[in-house]
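Aggregate trends can hide what the representation actually does to any particular protein. This step matters because it turns folding into a mapping between discrete strings. For completeness, the protein is quoted in full, as a sequence line and a line of structure tokens:
=====
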Amino acid sequence: MLIRILGSAAGGGFPQWNCNCAGCQAARSDKGVNPRTQSSLAVRGSSGDWFLVNASPDVRQQLERLRDGESTSVRFSPIAGVLLSDAEIDHSAGLTILREATEPLQIYGTNAVKQALTEGFSLLRVLENYCGVEWSVIEPGTVVNLGSKEKSSLTVEAFAVTGTPPKYISSISTEENWVVGFTFRDRVSDKVVTYTPALAEFTPEIIKRFEASDCILVDGTFWQDDELTKLGTSTRTALAMGHLPLAGDNGSLARLAQVACPRKIFVHINNTNPILIPNSPERQMVEAVGVEVGNDGLTIEL
């Protein structure tokens, strides 16, 4: 199985266009702090095509990372489908770029995400007038073959995580699964990867899932719960936004240090999080407990 981190930053990217926090200033000053695109992942089994996990606004440049050779046709798609873990703008707005596909987009997601992208942020209605969409429902607890079983060795299981609906769909009353994580399994190698770009709590079920994985890619959005309120850029805490902060006795870093998994990687990292700065005290704390800070282009082979 191959996993490639296409984008490792949270919404807005790094540096964020309208932010002058310490991290963004460092990224602009060429001091060894690398810019990052918005959160996205690509997964491929031992056989079969790449699948995109979340379509960020940076999807055009991200998909260039998946071109492993020259195509013999004028039109070529490096992906066979798109999985959506939620309906947030930074995970779905890239679908507008994919409207240029020559066949209907194969999209996998929950009914709640489909409703949000139909009634709230009407991307699916827009796409129907371009390439079209073939939606495959994937609800927590069900295992789905990605692509045809004959051609692809990859399966995925969605699992529910605590989350809130996007701000743009406050008028939609459904209380279904707004946010999910994904566990991918390769039927050939039997390797397992779990991806949770948004995670508000470590439940016993999620810890068990993490420990049954060969690699986990986990929400690393904020260092502190009051990170944005201290800066004066938001009135909401990390937990209110559905992200467990890294710091503290009950933070995700302390919890991950106790999780038995061969490889643990933080992704979806906000521009204000000091772990983005190499050699910062916070970065050293992360690395000291055996957790990696993911970066754009990182490829994991299992």
Q: What stands out?
A: Residues 209 and 298 are 23 Å apart (CA to CA). The chain has a mean pLDDT of 94.
